[in-house]
Write a structure and sequence with these properties.
Length: 407
């Protein structure tokens, strides 16, 4: 039951988090696979080995495997920049690795284990490179792969193997260690790339918001800058004329009043352009923005251009805010936007994506922001907004707005 809950919780996390778990557990599985191989050798030689010697070798090898799993976890965090290099754990791991390379050789030399037990040292030499390469630069990681292989070759020759056989063992072990190390290093590098892409995506979303704020500020400056300057000048002139020509002063103040009203109207137009969205433009923009973020977007637009302007504006804002939520609060691979008009004339807009919408995006504080703000906009036209989890766990945002009689 607990396992199923953990799997369900993992499924609800972001794609980045799931990818992290997948890669980490893949590396753990490599260590567990090595443990199975070593265990197979120990079982095979158990009948021909001294019990005390077998127990000692098994303890040393088992300790090294446990340390390998622990080092994989901490070294991976270090490689991704999450903590300092695990120096003490590395030292203990190297000592344990040396013990696992020497123990089978000494056991064979003392007659407590058959020759087949040498395979344990080879398996351990291959695996030990994996966790260790995550904690060092690439050049030093190469030496980490070569050193255990050289130890295996020297040990084989010391036990009486021909020089050529020892050389073959060393080369084969080095090749296996290089493959294991490359698997660990490449997996960790992939995680780092994914983290950087995720950070770049968040930065892009923040820059888009900042750009929109700058545009709004620029429009306000362009509208108000000249008019406020004229109002100030006219007010000064009216104050001066008030003492000499009352009629001219009244004319100037009337002009000030006209300019103030024009400014008020222009500000409303700027705010309306900022807060009222064109439905067709928002649909096109949503497709472009989502596809640029690597999200497959499909638009199903039926009769959208025939809707009344207030309905188009409200639904356009739903598309704009919904797209922002997909980019900033979800981790989606696809998004489908469906717009249709029912037989009774009701306009229905659905935005569905396979991402996980964060709770903070559901009801953001502040007027006009988040789904709470969208509900207010849609409710003002007699409509409704619903956010729910649809079929297959996808997130579904549905807006329904009365749009007049049926066509």
């Amino acid at each position: 039951m607990v396992t199923f809950r953990r799997l369900e919780g993992l499924r609800r996390t972001s794609q980045r988090a799931r990818f992290h778990h997948y890669v980490a557990w893949s590396l753990y599985v490599i260590g567990l696979t090595n443990a199975v191989l070593v265990g197979t050798v120990l079982i095979r030689v158990a009948g021909e080995s001294d019990a005390a010697t077998l127990a000692a070798v098994s303890t040393v090898v088992g300790g090294q495997l446990v340390l390998g799993l622990a080092l994989t976890r901490t070294a991976l965090r270090y490689y991704l920049g999450g903590q300092d290099r695990p120096g003490r754990l590395l030292a203990v791991y190297y000592a344990a690795t040396a013990a696992t390379l020497v123990a089978p050789v000494l056991a064979e030399a003392a007659g407590g284990m058959p020759e087949e037990g040498r395979a344990i040292a080879v398996y351990q030499a291959v695996y030990c490179a994996g966790p260790a390469v995550l904690a060092w630069p690439l050049r030093r990681a190469t030496a980490i792969c070569a050193a255990p292989a050289a130890a295996c070759a020297i040990g084989a020759v010391a036990l009486g193997a021909p020089l050529l056989a020892g050389l073959v063992i060393g080369v084969a072990t080095a090749a296996g260690a290089a493959v294991c190390g490359a698997a660990f290093r490449t997996s960790a590098w992939t995680l780092k790339v994914v983290d950087r892409l995720d950070a770049a995506r968040e930065t892009e979303a923040r820059l888009a918001v900042a750009e929109e704020r700058l545009r709004f500020g620029r429009d306000l400056h362009d509208v108000l800058g000249r008019n406020l300057s004229v109002i100030a000048l006219k007010s000064e002139l009216a104050a001066q004329l008030l003492q000499r020509d009352r009629g001219a002063a009244l004319d100037e103040m009337a002009e000030v009043q006209r300019i103030a009203r024009d400014s008020q109207r222009e500000i409303r137009e700027v705010v309306r352009g900022y807060r009222r969205a064109d439905l067709h433009a928002e649909l096109v923009g949503a497709r472009g923005v989502l596809q640029a973020a690597g999200i497959t977007c499909r638009i199903e637009d039926r009769h959208g251009e025939r809707l009344p302007e207030p309905v188009q504006s409200a639904l356009g804002w739903v598309v704009r805010e919904g797209t922002t939520n997909v980019l900033r609060h979800a981790d989606a691979g696809w998004c489908t936007v469906r717009l249709r008009r029912l037989a009774d004339g009701e306009a229905v807009l659905e935005m569905e994506n396979d991402g996980v919408l964060a709770e903070g995006a559901q009801d953001s504080p502040g007027g006009g922001m988040g789904l709470a703000g969208l509900r207010e906009r849609v409710a003002a036209l007699g409509g409704s907004l619903r956010a729910e989890r649809g079929a297959g766990g996808a997130f579904l945002l549905t807006a329904r707005v009365p749009a007049g009689g049926a066509e």
